[in-house]
Structures are given as C-alpha cells and as structure tokens.
Amino acid sequence: MSTSDHILLILHIGFAIFTLGPLTAATMSTPRHIRNRNATVVRYLNRTTQIYGAGTLLIFLFGLWLAKGELAHVWLSASMTLFIVALVLLLIVERDQRKAAKLLDEAGPAAAPAAAARAAEPAADDEKGDKGEQAAEAKAGAAKTAEQAPVAGTAAAEIAPVERGRIAAISGVIALIWLVILVLMVWNA
C-alpha cells in the first residue's frame, strides 16, 4: 500500500468515525424529542441528519477510491450494497423527521389544563365571604378542566406516533448496518 493509499485510508476511517457517530446519535435520539414535543430540537436533529447524511457520501467515495476497481470481492460488494441500503433508509428517516417537526409545529405548544386546574383549586378554597360564589364557579371550572386533561394529554401523545416509531425502528436497522459494514471491513482488511 502506497503512502497516498494510507492517507486515503486514514481519511476514510476518519470520515466514518466523525460522520457516522453523530449521524447515528441524531437519528436515534429523535423519537425521544418527538415524544417530548420539542419541535425545535427535532428540526435541529433533522438538519444534523441532512448534513451528516451528505457527509457519508465522502465515506463511500473514499471507499470506492480505495477499492481501485477490485469490486469482485464479495465483502466489498456486500459492504457497498449495505451502505447504499443504509443511505436509502436514512432518506426515509430524514423525511419522517421533517414531517414530525411540521406536525409538532402545527400542534403548537401543549396546553397544561391539569396544571391550570391545580392552580385554580387553592384559590377557590381561599375565597371567603362575597367571593364564595365566584370561588364555587372557579372550582367547578377547574373540575371540568381536570376532567378534560386526560383527553388533552392523550391527544398530545398522539402527535407523530407513526413517524416516531418508524424513525426508532429504521435508526436501529441503520446502526446495525453500520456495524455489519465495520465487521466486514475489519475482518477482511
């Protein structure tokens, strides 16, 4: 192996480490932030996926250059095929991240009806005298809001469940593909 091939191999390994690590972390942490309804972080993770996803193409190109046309080896063909499959799956994850961020933006900030009900109850209990009627009305309104809280909480949990599940599943598959490629590269290098 020549000096230029060693430099290319170092670049290939360096890009793999510093690109696939953050990419995997971004895709695998997205479902948690969708569940927490944090649209800002989901948009940030989507942008991270886009940037590092494009960076993975350099890994592929350096690998092709290192192969120097010797693609007849089964392990090289398998690695490249798996890499392309991972890139296609990554496009699906990126699309779902974008869609989840849009759904979270459309849903807006979550209202906290249960917290409002708890805040109204002590105020209603402290009311005395002429304000007793107002306190009773506030308490009745708080009870009605508290009854509606589980419904609102259920609706809040239902934002982007399909995207969240698909991102979680596909991210795990992508990480497994990266590990299989790593094993193929180390075993046959």
TrEMBL record:
The chain crosses the membrane at residues 6-28, 49-67, 73-93, 167-187. Residues 125-136 have a biased composition (Basic and acidic residues). It comes from the Bacteria. This is DUF2269 family protein. Residues 116-143 are annotated as: Disordered. The keyword Transmembrane applies. Keywords: Membrane, Transmembrane, Transmembrane helix.
